[in-house]
Design goal:
Blueprint: H1 3-24, E1 27-34, E2 37-42, H2 47-59, E3 64-71, E4 77-81, H3 90-100
Antiparallel strand pairs: 1-2, 1-3, 3-4
Helix pairs in contact: 2-3
Length: 102
């Protein structure tokens, strides 16, 4: 494979990665769990939702991870989770968001 072909491939992969990031949307707010402690890292999060998330993290002993609120078409905010937050716990966070946030 020649150098121009390699450069073209690298540019195509970078463009694809940028497109995926753009389509995923940027978060309105971000919560991070570090050492079992929940912190707001971006935006404003309703207090009751934050308190519920703290309780969920305590209940399930979640030590690390990220929860983001991403605005979708129609203006509603959906939740996005890092891989450290087990999928079986996502629904409990979504229920809290539906009740207190969105």
């Amino acid at each position: 494979m020649s150098l121009p072909h390699i450069l073209l491939l690298v540019l195509a992969l970078a463009g694809a990665a940028g497109l995926v990031y753009f389509l995923r949307g940027s978060p309105e707010w971000r919560l991070e769990v570090e050492g079992g402690r929940l912190k707001v890292r971006r935006g404003n999060v309703p207090g009751r939702f934050f308190a519920d998330c703290e309780q969920i993290c305590r209940d399930w002993r979640i030590e690390k991870g990220r929860i983001e609120g991403v605005r979708r078409e129609g203006g509603r905010v959906s939740l996005r989770f890092s891989k450290e937050i087990p999928a079986e716990h996502h629904q409990r966070f979504r229920n809290a968001w539906g009740f207190h946030g969105g």
